[in-house]
Amino acid sequence: MKYVKQIFNIYVLMNKGNKKMVGEAKKCDQTWTCEGEDKCREKCLTLHNGVGVCDLYTAPLVPKQCFCHYDC
Predict the structure, then answer these.
(1) Average pLDDT, whole number, for the chain?
(2) Is 10 a member of any domain?
(3) What are residue 32's DSSP bridge partners?
(4) CATH of residue 32
(5) Which of 26, 30, 48, 70 has the smallest number of CB atoms closer than 10 Å to its CB?
(6) Do 66 and 52 meet the contact criterion of CB atoms below 8 Å apart?
(7) pTM of the full predicted structure?
(8) Mapping DSSP to helix (H, G, I), strand (E, B) and coil, where does residue 52 land?
(9) Running DSSP on this structure, what letter comes out for residue 9?
């Protein structure tokens, strides 16, 4: 009986972290040319109710991009 209890406890501990919220929104993103950090945040919030961030590092001659992350 002690052996069965130990196996049950291990099973419960292993499955504890595998729960996913029901109805969790899928994450989407969109990019466009960054016109400044403030405009990026404002446009993303206005269009998609999301969080917009301009990338910090780009290759030479490549314009900075605004990355907008939002719930679909």
Answers:
(1) 80
(2) no
(3) 66
(4) 3.30.30.10
(5) 26
(6) yes
(7) 0.61
(8) strand
(9) H
pLDDT tens digits along 13-69: 555 555 555 567 789 999 999 999 999 999 999 999 999 999 988 888 889 999 999
> Domain containing 31: what range?
21-71
> Which DSSP letter does residue 38 get?
H
DSSP 23: T
Q: Which two tokens stand for residue 13?
A: 């501990």
Tokens of 32: 């466009």
Domain count, the chain: 1
Q: What is the pLDDT of residues 29-40, one digit of tens each?
A: 999 999 999 999
Beta bridge partners of 71: 27
Q: Answer yes or no: is 11 within a domain.
A: no
The amino acid at 65: Q
